[in-house]
Amino acid sequence: MPVTPVMPVLPAGEAHLLRTTVPAHPSRAAGVRAMLAEHLTQLGLSPDHLDNAVLAADELFVNAVKHGSPDPGGTITVTVEYTERELRVTVADRSPALPRLRTADGAEESGRGLAIVAALSDDWGIAPAGPGSAGKKVWFALMLRGMP
Q1: How do residues 3-39 score in pLDDT, each as one tens digit?
Q2: Residue-wise over 34-44: b if at least 16 C-beta within 10 A, else e?
Q3: What is the spatial distance between Cα 110 and Cα 127, in angstroms, rounded to a whole number?
Q4: What molecular function does GO assign, one term (predicted)?
Q5: 39-98 pLDDT, tens per residue?
Q6: Distance between CA atoms of 89 and 137, rounded to whole angstroms?
């Protein structure tokens, strides 16, 4: 099932916002990646920025599904904010458990997600959920130097 954005794209020259909420299920990862790639392509991101953003967002989404969705009917909200200088992607889930950056040894099959996000982005972090909401937001930013 395709992922449909909640907020429309604004006219050129203004900040752009895309927000979608999807079920917290691994089967939704491909749809989220496709939606992000299509949206970022329409914004004219360079291939490197696009690839880095989609991969980092996928890592955050997978982490939210695996570690941040305690309820079977849980949801994850993905928000993309774009200005001519910065692209910020935020993934919000309902778990209060905070992720931690760690070093996985060579034999481990997981544990590298945040290290990948840190390597691909210019900045990343964790923020509390909005007022009256449970959970947290994990975000990353890419600086878009030289973008039109």
Answers
A1: 544 444 444 556 789 999 999 999 999 999 999 999 9
A2: ebbbebbeebe
A3: 23
A4: ATP binding
A5: 999 988 999 999 999 999 999 999 999 888 767 789 999 999 999 899 999 999 999 888
A6: 10
Q: Which two tokens stand for residue 64?
A: 């939210």
Per this entry, what is the length of the chain? 148
Query: Could you tell me the two tokens for 119?
Result: 């390597």
User: Which range scores top for mean pLDDT: 3-7, 29-33, 107-111, 133-137?
Assistant: 29-33
- Residue in this structure with the two tokens 């992000």, named with its chain if needed: 36
Name, in order, each residue with C-beta under 8 angstroms of 42's C-beta and a sequence gap of 6 or more.
9
Tokens of 134: 């449970």
> Could you tell me the two tokens for 45?
């991101």
Tokens matching residue 118: 């840190």
Cβ(143)–Cβ(49) below 8 Å: no
Residue with tokens 């570690």: 67
